[in-house]
């Protein structure tokens, strides 16, 4: 089994059937046999086309996974107001200024968690090697599962803890897998992690970092069936899986990453792997890279960009995913969307926060579900899309400058206050006259009012004359 990325161009249609349906039709029409998409990203759009990049799973498929499953959609009928639950997304591998390095959107997540009952986010936002500072009301949800939540096909059930299976490459240098085992033991002793077993894979999968045509960090993965065999061998014994394996990158990348502005080369291919694992087995999953050798471990990188510092001081990069998976919510397939007790569904999602310009299945699902979307300009990235061109309902899209302003909009939505009513200047009230939209306070309204007044005066004069 193989995972890889492929670029396609999708013509823009009338949108009468909805963007999601148009995307599904275009992708599946050109899908080769024995391949299934596991994620879709719109990297650039104009008036004619969507430039997309697909993550594809090539090989024997499990019977439970239809080839078009990522497009499955279930419409919510209402938004629950019992609690306020926000989704925070920073897509992996797009060179985001916040969240594109080593868990450097963790502070953003903590900020936003203070303004909602539950903050639903994904590993890329908070994974910082040996650190993961997600707040107690934060839900650590793998990216493909988060997408399916927004599509309405899965729900999330909070847990007290998970039984975690840890699967490691059996590195040719025992130092590295022993360090990983020590990380697991440390999490057991300090976090109370329930580790079912640490499995050392002698027959490893192969992960290679690459960059796509758009500049996104992606990659390729081969021999995935070896990992599937392990996961099936331990079926029923674990609730979540932590993975650590070597990712092949050019040796110079290890120093260049810390010394230049290059995109993190590891996160993209990690995301491809966890998307596939969580999709195939409906379990929480997360991955951390394992270093190739001691020469790379001993590189002297000096004092680095604070966004990358967590990686500069770690050996295994493993604790962040163990902490996240410890209480990652259980996945509930085909949930009821009518407020079923104890399960968070798309009906419970109150808003979504993304970097400006990012379009993928979560954004398209939010449009269809009527979920307010807050787009943050300051979180610049490699995606080239104008969100204002998308068919958002009136008042559904809020474009803000930074995450501090985003929290203000979140609080306004939570309070039931239209954000534009607390800004100045305040636009005139919209008034309909004989079906023609005009604004109160305009000359047109004044003219209409004057005309009505003159007609009233003529009527009164006629009555007196009679």
Summary tags:
single chain, 466 residues, alpha/beta, Rossmann fold, 6-stranded parallel beta sheet, 6-stranded mixed beta sheet, 14 helices, 31% helix, globular
Poorly predicted regions are: 443-453
Mean pLDDT: 91
In total, the number of strands is 20
Helical stretch count? 14
* Rg computed from alpha carbons, rounded to a whole number of angstroms: 25 Å
User: Which term fits the overall shape?
Assistant: globular
Please identify, by name, the CATH architecture of one domain: 3-Layer(aba) Sandwich
End-to-end separation in angstroms reads: 94 Å
Estimate the strand proportion.
25-35%
Strand order of the largest sheet: 6-5-4-15-17-18
Fill in the CATH topology of one domain: Rossmann fold
| Biggest beta-sheet profile | 6 strands, parallel
* CATH domain class of one domain: Alpha Beta
SS-derived structural category: alpha/beta
Helicity level: 25-40%
Describe this structure in words.
The protein is of the alpha/beta class. Among the domains are: 2-71, no CATH class; 159-328, Rossmann fold (3-Layer(aba) Sandwich), CATH 3.40.50; 430-465. It is 31% helix and 25% strand. The chain is built from 14 helices and 20 strands. The protein has a six-stranded parallel beta sheet with strand order 6-5-4-15-17-18, sandwiched between helices. Strands 8, 9, 10, 11, 12 and 13 form a six-stranded mixed beta sheet that branches. Helix 4 (143-151) packs parallel to helix 12 and helix 5 (174-191) runs parallel beside helix 11 (319-326). The model is unreliable at 443-453 (pLDDT under 50).
């Amino acid at each position: 089994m193989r995972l890889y990325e492929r670029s396609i161009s999708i013509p823009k249609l009338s949108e009468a059937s909805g963007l999601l349906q148009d995307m599904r039709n275009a992708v599946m029409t050109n899908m080769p046999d024995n391949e299934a998409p596991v994620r879709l990203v719109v990297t650039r759009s104009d008036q004619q086309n969507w430039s997309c990049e697909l993550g594809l799973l090539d090989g024997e498929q499990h019977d439970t996974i239809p080839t078009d499953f990522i497009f499955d959609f279930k419409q919510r009928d209402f938004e629950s107001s019992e609690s306020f639950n926000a989704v925070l997304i920073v897509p992996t591998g797009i060179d985001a200024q916040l969240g594109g390095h080593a868990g450097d959107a963790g502070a953003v997540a903590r900020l936003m968690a203070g303004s909602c009952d539950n903050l639903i986010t994904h590993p890329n936002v908070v994974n910082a090697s040996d650190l993961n500072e997600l707040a107690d009301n934060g839900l650590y949800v793998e990216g493909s599962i988060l997408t399916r939540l927004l599509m309405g096909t899965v729900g999330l059930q909070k847990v007290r803890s998970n039984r975690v299976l840890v699967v490691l490459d059996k590195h040719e240098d025992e130092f590295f897998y022993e360090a990983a085992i020590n990380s697991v033991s440390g999490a057991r002793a300090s976090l109370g992690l329930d580790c079912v077993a640490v499995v050392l894979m002698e027959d490893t999968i192969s992960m290679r970092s690459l960059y796509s045509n758009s500049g996104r960090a992606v990659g390729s993965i081969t021999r995935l069936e070896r990992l599937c065999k392990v996961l099936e061998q331990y079926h029923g014994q674990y609730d979540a899986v932590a993975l650590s394996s070597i990712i092949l990158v050019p040796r110079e990348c290890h120093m260049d990453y810390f010394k230049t502005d290059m995109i993190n080369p590891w996160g993209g291919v990690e995301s491809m792997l966890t998307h596939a694992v969580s999709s195939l087995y409906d379990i929480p999953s997360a991955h951390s890279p394992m270093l190739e050798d001691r020469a790379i471990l001993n590189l002297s990188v000096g004092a680095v960009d604070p966004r990358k510092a967590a990686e500069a001081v770690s050996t295994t990069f493993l604790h962040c995913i163990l902490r996240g998976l410890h209480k990652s919510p259980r996945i509930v397939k085909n949930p009821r969307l009518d407020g079923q007790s104890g399960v968070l569904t798309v009906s419970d999602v109150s808003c979504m926060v993304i970097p400006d310009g990012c379009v993928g299945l979560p954004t398209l699902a939010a449009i269809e579900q009527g979920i307010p979307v807050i787009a943050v300009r300051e979180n610049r990235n490699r995606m080239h899309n104008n969100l204002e061109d998308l068919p958002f309902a009136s008042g559904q899209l809020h474009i803000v400058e930074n995450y501090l302003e985003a929290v203000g909009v979140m609080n306004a939505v939570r309070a039931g206050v239209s954000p534009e009513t607390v800004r100045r200047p305040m636009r005139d009230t919209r008034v309909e006259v004989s079906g023609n939209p005009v604004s109160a306070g305009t000359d047109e309204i004044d003219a209409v009012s004057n005309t009505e007044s003159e007609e009233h005066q003529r009527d009164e004069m006629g009555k007196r004359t009679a």
